[in-house]
Amino acid sequence: MIGAATLLGAAPANAREPGASEPPRVELVLDVSGSMAAADIDGETRIAVAKRAFGKVVDALPATTQLGIRVLGATYGGKDKKIACQDTQQIIPIGPVNQVQAKNAIATLKPTGYTPIGLALKQAAADLGDTGATRRIVLITDGEDTCTPPDPCEVARDLAAQGTHLVVDTLGLTPDEKTRKQLVCISTATGGTFAAANSEEELTDRVQQLVDRAATPPPVQPATVTGTGSCANAPLLAPGVYTDREKISEHRFYRVAVQPDQELRASVSVALDRAVQPDYGVLLKASTTDGRELVRGLDAGSGRTDVLSAGLRWSADEQKADAKASAEAADADTDDDATRTTEVCLIVSNSFASKVVTDTGMPVELSIDLVDASHTPDAPGLGRGFLFLLVLAIAGLLAGVLAGWITRYWVATWREN
Question: For this UniProt entry, which segments traverse the membrane (predicted)?
Answer without folding.
Answer: 386-411
